[in-house]
Amino acid sequence: MKQQVWIEKYKVTSYLVNLQGRAGLYAMLNLIQDVGWMHATHLEVKLPANLGWVFTRQKLMMKEWPAWNETVVLKTWLRPPTSDSFLYRDYEILIDQKKIGECTSTFAVMDLQTRKLAKQDWNQFPKIWHTDHQLHHEADKILPASDADVLAQFQVRNSDIDLNQHVNNTKYAQWILDAIPIDILKNSGLLESYEVNFLAETKSGDVIQLQKVTNSILEGNSSVTQFQGLRTSDQKIVFTAKLRVQA
Question: How far is Cα of residue 190 from the mean position of the Cα atoms in its chain?
Fold first, then answer.
């Protein structure tokens, strides 16, 4: 019997904390990736040889961030599919049984030859979906913007590459954090959410220009800033992202 919900505990060690002494965005995305990978391996959801998974979007929302030496619990499950091309994986993040955050990742099925989305019959996996409890959000479509300022430029390094021979999804968040002036990171309010759209693969040797959309948006007591990555070789936007921070 496959486990519909997978649970892992992680201690926030010294190498996970940021300059505020907490497991920040990059660390949490790596833990989310880890628990999702373990569950997916356990479920053994195997596609036909001509099809593959594509990570398309993600949304992380946090009420607080775990501090050094705290133990954080991550729960993850797959929603019952509502599309023949997309799957949604949900996550809850807890400390001492108190939920401090939640996340949803979106995956698509792609034909590896045509590089186009493909349909999949999910009826062959009837017992892997978690039906008792689901989250009710997902990442929005984030359109590239023309009015953007260049913050930094990154060349893809060997350490950025994952098992699939392209840039690991968590690295895009790290690039954003590396491009923001450190004084802003030190003095910013609570990071409430991170949304990202993955638009194209980036590989070893690519040069990515990290851009910040010129005008931030105020929503209540929060400021929403959009970022995007442009590949210099073909001027293609490879990802878009938004950070929502308490003003």
Answer: 18
Q: Which residue has the higher pLDDT, 117 or 230?
A: 230
Q: For residues 115 and 160, what is the distance between their CA atoms, to the nearest angstrom?
A: 23
Structural element, H or E, at residue 183: helix 182-187
First to last CA, the chain: 47
* pLDDT, tens digit, 9 for 90 and up, residues 64-104: 999 999 999 999 999 999 889 899 999 999 999 999 999 99
Q: Which CATH number applies to 5-124?
A: 3.10.129.10
In terms of DSSP bridges, do strands 207-213 and 222-231 run parallel, antiparallel, or are they unpaired? antiparallel
Give the C-alpha separation, 26 to 64, whole Å: 15
Residue 115's pLDDT band (cuts 50, 70, 90) = confident
What tokens were used for 155?
Answer: 């060349």
Q: By the 8 A CB rule, do 32 and 91 touch?
A: yes
pLDDT, residue 141, reads: 96
Q: Which CATH number fits domain 148-246: 3.40.50.1460, 3.40.1180.10, 3.10.129.10, 3.90.226.10?
A: 3.10.129.10
Q: Which residues, 6+ apart, have CB-to-CB distance to 92 below 8 Å?
A: 74, 75, 76, 99, 101, 102, 135
User: How many C-beta atoms lie closer than 10 Å to residue 57's C-beta?
Assistant: 22
Instruction: Give the containing element (helix H, strand E) for 150.
Output: strand 148-155
CB atoms closer than 10 angstroms to residue 62: 20
Bigger pLDDT: 24 vs 48: 24
